Amino acid sequence: MALEDLMAARYEKLEALLDAGINPYPYKFEPNAHTTTIKAEFDKINPEEEKKDAVFKLAGRIISRRDFGKLAFMILDDGKGRLQIVARKGETSEKAMEMLKKYIDVGDIIGIEGYVFKTKKGELSLMIKELVILSKSLRPLPEKWHGLEDREEKYRHRYVDLIVNPESRKVFEKKAKIFKIIRDIMEEKDFLEMDIPIMQPVYGGAYAAPFKTYSNAWKRDLFLSISPELYLKKLLVGGFERVYALTKAFRNEDVDRTHNPEFTTFEAYAAYWDYNDIMNLTEEIFERVALELYDSTIITYGDKEIDLSRPWKRLPMKQALKELGDVDVDKLSDDEIKALLKEHEIDMPYYNRGLAISELFEELCEDKLIQPTFITDHPKETTPLCKLHREDPALVERFELYINGVEMVNAYSELNDPLLQRKLFEEQEAERAKHTDEYQPNDRDFLEALEYGMPPAGGLGIGIDRLVMLMTNRQSIRDVIPFPQLRPSKEEKHEGESKEANKS
């Protein structure tokens, strides 16, 4: 039957409910239990055993239904879990039986009252005594909602995905728990959670192109935050010793398996720490998340087992190129490095030795880093916000954490020398003018803040969505973002074309 016909039948039932004086969208219902509490309490009762002395009220959505004349079996999903509910003539009130027969469809949200029993086959169930409709569903649930062909539809209509796929719901429940675990750790270590502006007059804190907007009130351009870094550092200047933010970031970049233009980031800054302290904190966060989610430091991702138990391997970037890429960049001239870039089809807008080394590392080494590995001591050109390495001024005290070939963390010993910071900003500003707006603009207010004095500090950035991917065994970042950015649908494209045609 066509969708239009199915919906028409439901509209007829809606009109029939109204004609019968029944509100299909009442104001309130008060459940006294959930499916999970009923299962926990009664799962061990015997087949055909009944518990008529305990009356339970449940609310939820009907996911499936089978009718056998005077008997009906349904599955109720209340957001916590699923439970079989049963209506039987003689046990269920006549009013409830009439509701089921005339008005109720799969997808409707109902409230029920009844008692627990087990079927002859051992299925824990609830016998319906009374039933009320709480929300009439006018659009039927899809019969098939799985497979690659439906993936775009799952993301576009996430609410349907959450209804029919309990596993999707569990991903977001775990994501919420990960937020709580991180906040618990930070509170234990005396960090304060701070909020930072999403719209900023100057974007900074990362190598990324921004989204641009405009303020009618101030008559100026503003940019969506690409990172909370500079604002959190200003709080260090202001006297806070340990601060963090769990917030949204926006980067106007391509979409792929690990990138979404809007994502959740966690950044933390601790005065008097360096990147070694931050490595220790990173290990603790990942290990504890795994332990609290799974009671184990060993997790499965795809076809691999990842061991998150501390300590993790620490490998300087140039050493990683030697060991994993069979390239000793210190023995190569610029021309030889350019030849390697060409050999591996690595395009750069212009040649810079430090950035070229970083690009070669990404191409030759990243996919080989399966178990947790800190890649340390990057070329200084990779960031203007990091302290120069205390033993080699051609490098910076920066690390990235790689797990299963994916960058999970970026962290520094933070630069707090205002004169050097100004020089590096000016250099990047010049490159930005010549090549790309991904470079950090010259943030004069941040430089002024540094001139008041910022304590030595360690900073940490974790891509929360990638962490959730790892911890829930999901292969795409869009699987762990409830409403990811998507290409325009056919309807949206058509509307956009119509608007453009009207303008012309």
Structure description:
The chain has 2 domains: 3-135, Nucleic acid-binding proteins (OB fold (Dihydrolipoamide Acetyltransferase, E2P)); 164-312 and 371-490, BirA Bifunctional Protein, domain 2 (2-Layer Sandwich). Helices cover 36% and strands 26% of the residues. The chain has helices spanning 3-19, 35-42, 94-102, 151-156, 158-164, 166-188, 229-237, 275-294, 317-325, 334-343, 353-364, 418-434, 444-452, 464-472, 490-503; strands at residues 50-68, 71-77, 82-88, 109-118, 124-135, 192-193, 199-200, 212-215, 220-224, 242-250, 262-271, 298-301, 304-307, 313-316, 373-379, 395-403, 406-413, 457-463. The protein has an 8-stranded mixed sheet with strand order 6-10-11-18-17-16-15-14, sandwiched between helices. Strands 1-2-3-5-4 form a 5-stranded mixed barrel. A 3-stranded antiparallel sheet has the order 7-9-8, with no helix packed on it. α6 packs across α14 (464-472) and α7 (229-237) packs parallel to α13 (444-452).
Set out the fold topology:
Elements (H helix, E strand, L loop, with lengths): L2 H17 L15 H8 L7 E19 L2 E7 L4 E7 L5 H9 L6 E10 L5 E12 L15 H6 L1 H7 L1 H23 L3 E2 L5 E2 L11 E4 L4 E5 L4 H9 L4 E9 L11 E10 L3 H20 L3 E4 L2 E4 L5 E4 H9 L8 H10 L9 H12 L8 E7 L15 E9 L2 E8 L4 H17 L9 H9 L4 E7 H9 L17 H14 L1
Parallel strand pairs: 3-5, 6-10, 14-15
Antiparallel strand pairs: 1-2, 1-4, 2-3, 4-5, 7-9, 8-9, 10-11, 11-18, 12-13, 15-16, 16-17, 17-18
